UniProtKB/TrEMBL annotation:
Span of domain Secretion system C-terminal sorting: 585-661
Transmembrane feature ranges: none
Entry superkingdom: Bacteria
Protein's name in the database: Putative secreted protein (Por secretion system target)
Length: 663
């Protein structure tokens, strides 16, 4: 257990490592910031001054800016006391307010008569924090020093001329967290991160063993931290690299926290091995990798590192490769020899047409629909999902299914939950197909980097937002006060490869405006436009920035004049490898519906192999018996309500859609 030296109580803290490589670009650009890295060695200058960003005016001559993080290497040194070297780290971005300095003693080997002194302050007149000598250096390896304000290191003496035997890592920042790695800490500047962002905050670089070797030489997996909409730290989780052939430099060499930022993206048809999507091959590799990640929970650095190698081998080599029997890749191949067909049930979580997903705490209820079906019947399939519901939220009733504990057995085409809450807030409800033979290959969530050069690789984790089993999730919200406006409808559709949002409302008394929010995972949102209230209650917005991702989610933030607000239900549009997915238009419908393709054009009749419509009890109420007419599908004989329409295309693609009939 390593010792921690701190100037006050432990706070949450973090450091960043990013792994660089070339890959495709994503639409989110990395921020332009004044930070940077430092590599030094107690060189020729008697005293160096380092600042994390721009050097403030009035700083000592020769001060260096952009030294947010760094490494000190000092092998082969022979410095007398009279010529001792000082390095002062001043953690300030503006010259007036100060953050902290974190020093981590990774590797130390001193000859006799050697001293390393650590002071709080800008010179040797400051408070002595610790003195590391030839007689005690071995016991100091792995220690951390958390210092408020400036820190000064003073060095003199001799070190062996052996590469990488004396390494100190430093970080600066004003947010302190504990990383994933056995109590190790890190730092970040709040001004250097964005709202709702993920940052890699630590690796697995280990300290020096008594024999001179590192306790663990593999730097991966990494540790990812999430910061909320107010840039407050929320959590950390272990993240595994899924680009085996890409570079992974030691942390502190190049990137600093905030220089690269990640966001979680939902994926479909994910090309895990980067050679073009092949369903049988890529889905099997994903299933094996998810199994490997699930085995890493609670394991040591060494085992996690071995599992990382197993992930790389699984990703890079053929699914039929005969690995060494003791390797983690071989264990994954044995544990997941094949995957079922179909790979998971067809299911989703969404709101009924008249549900916003938001209501008043204690008195209001929210309904959630779970359409569920299997595209083909295979042995062992069930219609049971496990519900993950946060504390304070209760299931008041269920239609189309029965609930026993957390297990929901679905008995109709759509099961509907009616939820209430005794607590205020926004919550995620999950439905998990919790069968060990099925893996989450169709709803995989991947950390994708912002767009910079060089690009960082993608990462994968299993945790709060990404489960190993097939799952779906939805956000619900309970508020203290009544909602400022009531939506009559809100729909998203694709026209000429643009997202077209349309909605209409009622009761806009004292109402101000709508904020349109967009997301890639239906959990982390960004504002893209504002639409003022009008007298008609009818609105439309076109989003043309959708060309580079697979799925986008939209919601409306409805703001009253007193700044109270509520959210609409979530709508989404999706891309797949063949273009845009099918959409129904109009929806809700009163007489005819049309199937639209990627360009918003009516789908040719020869593209549809089968089509059926079921009511909420699972009974088939319509079945296609002839080619789809250019006049559309006649639903005038259906009573008002919700239905599920199943469509099979001639290329074998199966999709299930919610259809609302209203008159």
């Amino acid at each position: 257990m390593k010792k921690i030296h701190t100037s006050q109580n432990r706070f949450l803290l973090f450091l960043a490592i990013i792994y660089s490589f070339s890959t495709i670009s994503y639409s989110q650009n990395c921020p332009s910031l004044p930070g940077g890295h430092y590599i030094g060695s107690f060189g020729s200058s008697s005293q160096e001054y380092l600042f994390p960003g721009t050097v403030p005016s009035g700083s000592p001559s020769g001060s260096q800016g952009g030294k947010t993080i760094g490494h000190l290497y000092f092998e082969g040194k022979n410095i007398t006391y009279a010529n001792r070297r000082l390095i002062t780290i001043r953690p300030t971005l503006d010259g007036s307010s100060y953050g902290k300095v974190l020093l981590q003693l990774f590797k130390l080997r001193f000859n006799s008569g050697t001293y390393l002194k650590i002071y709080r302050g800008s010179n040797e007149s400051g408070t002595l924090v610790d003195e590391i000598t030839s007689s005690n250096y071995a016991s100091k390896v792995g220690d951390e020093y958390i210092i408020d304000g400036a820190a000064t290191l003073v060095f003199y003496g001799q070190t062996p001329n052996v590469a990488d035997n004396n390494i100190i890592r430093f970080l600066t920042g004003d947010i302190l967290i504990q990383t994933c790695n056995e109590g190790r800490s890190g730092l970040v500047w709040k001004d250097f991160i964005s709202a709702n962002s993920y940052v890699l905050v630590d690796d697995q670089e280990g300290p020096l063993n008594p024999d001179g070797s590192t306790s663990y030489p593999n730097f991966l997996p990494a540790c990812m931290a999430y910061f909320d909409e107010n840039k407050n730290f929320v959590r950390v989780e272990t993240a595994f690299c899924i680009d085996q052939l890409k570079d992974a430099p030691t942390p502190g060499y190049w990137e600093y926290p905030g220089e690269y930022q990640f966001s979680i993206h939902s994926t479909t048809n994910y090309d895990i091995d980067r050679d073009g999507f092949n369903a049988s091959k890529d889905n099997l590799k994903i299933a094996r990798i998810l199994w490997l990640i699930s085995q890493a929970e609670g394991k040591t650095f060494e085992i996690k590192g071995d599992i990382q190698w197993g992930i790389w081998d699984t990703q890079y080599y053929s699914v039929t490769t005969n690995f060494s029997s003791s390797s983690w890749a071989a264990k994954a191949k044995s544990a997941v020899p094949t995957i079922p067909s179909p790979v998971e049930p067809t299911f989703s979580m969404n709101f009924p047409s008249d549900e916003t997903g938001e209501d008043v705490v204690n008195t209001g209820t929210i309904q959630v629909d779970i359409p569920f079906s299997w595209s083909s019947v295979q042995t062992g399939q069930t219609k049971v999902v496990k519900l993950i519901i946060p504390a304070g939220i209760a299931v008041q009733s269920v239609t189309g299914g029965t609930l026993s504990g957390s297990n929901l057995t679905i008995t109709a085409a759509v099961a509907t939950l009616t939820l209430s809450s005794s607590v205020i807030g926004e919550f995620t409800i999950k439905a998990v197909y919790d069968d060990p033979f099925y893996c989450n290959v169709s709803n995989l969530k991947v950390y994708k980097p912002c767009n910079a050069s060089p690009q960082s690789q993608e990462f994968l984790h299993v945790g709060e937002e990404n489960l190993a089993r097939p799952f779906r999730s939805i956000l619900v919200k309970w508020v203290q006060n009544p909602l400022p406006v009531r939506l009559m409808s809100f729909d998203a559709s694709l026209e000429n490869k643009n997202a077209v949002l349309q909605w209409n409302s009622a009761e806009e008394v004292n109402f101000s405006h709508y904020i349109i929010e967009k997301s890639t995972d239906a959990e982390k949102w960004s504002s893209i436009s504002m639409v003022s209230s009008n007298s008609t209650g009818n609105y439309q917005f076109v989003d043309s920035n959708i060309s580079s991702m697979t799925t986008f989610y939209y919601r409306l933030k409805m703001v009253d004049h007193d700044d109270t607000y509520s959210y609409s239900r979530i709508q989404n549009i999706s891309f797949d490898q063949k273009g845009l997915k099918l959409i129904l238009h109009p929806n809700p419908a009163s007489d005819f519906i049309f199937l639209k393709d990627a360009d918003g054009q009516t789908l040719a009749s020869d593209k549809v192999a089968a089509l059926s419509i079921m009511n909420t009890q699972g009974a088939e109420v319509y079945k296609l018996t002839s080619p789809v007419s250019s006049d559309g599908i006649n639903v005038t004989n259906l009573t008002s309500g919700m239905y599920v329409i199943k469509i099979t295309l001639t290329d074998g693609t199966l999709s299930t859609h919610k259809l609302v009939v209203g008159r």
